[in-house]
Amino acid sequence: MSSNSYSKNLNNHPAKRAGLAELARNAKPFMAVFFISGVMIMPSYAASWRDELPNATLVGSGHFRWFGLKIYSAKLWSENARFNANAKFALELTYNRSISHKQFIKTTIDEIKRLNGNQISAEKLASWEKELIPASPDVSSGDELIGVYLPEQGYRVYNKQGLLADIQDPELARAFFAIWLDPRTKDSGLRAQLLGTEK
C-alpha cells in the first residue's frame, strides 16, 4: 500500500473521524468565549475629539509666547460656558513652531515636578514619562494636539487625523492639565484667557 493510500485510509478511519468530531465539539464553547470576550473588550473610541464633547462650547483662548515668539495658540472647550475642572473638557493647542517629542515630554515632566515638588515619586515620574510617549509626537507649524480630560478615567489625545493616545491614569491627567490651569502655572495670563477671567 502506498503512503498516500495509507494516509487516506487513516483519515477515513471511523475512530479518527469520531475523534475529530469530538475535538470540534469541545472547541466550540472555547471559540465562542474567545470571540465574545474579544468583542466585549474591544475598545471603542471617538473618531474626533469633538465626538467626545458634542456640545463643546469655547470657554476662552489665548497664545503662549516665549521671549516674544508665539509657540502655540490654545483654546479651552467645555460642555458648558461655565468651566468646571471636574467635568469633561478639552484643551486644543495649535502650534506655530516645531517641537520634538523629546522636548515635549521633558517640558511636561519638568512642569509636573515644578508644580508638585516631592509629592510625586521619581518612580512614578519615570512611569509617566513612558505613558506620555504616544501622546507626545513631533509637531510642526500648523499641527494640532487636543487633550480631552475624562474625570476619574484619564485623558485622550487627538490630532487632525484622529486618536493618538488613551491615557488611563486619572492622576497623570490632573497633573498634565494643571500645567495650564493651575493657579501656579508659568503663564498666568494665558490661564486667565483660557478660563475667561482675564481683566
Question: How would the blueprint of this fold be written?
Answer:
Blueprint: H1 3-11, H2 14-41, H3 49-52, E1 57-66, E2 69-78, E3 89-95, H4 101-116, H5 122-131, E4 144-150, E5 154-158, E6 163-167, H6 170-181, H7 188-195
Helix pairs in contact: 4-6
Describe this structure in words.
With 199 residues, this protein is of the alpha+beta class. The chain has two domains: 3-41; 49-195, 3-Layer(bba) Sandwich (Chalcone isomerase). The protein has helices at residues 3-11, 14-41, 49-52, 101-116, 122-131, 170-181, 188-195; strands spanning 57-66, 69-78, 89-95, 144-150, 154-158, 163-167. The protein has a six-stranded antiparallel sheet with strand order 1-2-3-4-5-6. Strand 1 (57-66) and strand 2 form a beta hairpin. Helix 4 (101-116) crosses helix 6. The longest helix is centred in the N-terminal third of the chain and has 28 residues, at 14-41. It is globular. The termini are far apart. Mean pLDDT is 82; it is low at 1-11 and 13-42.
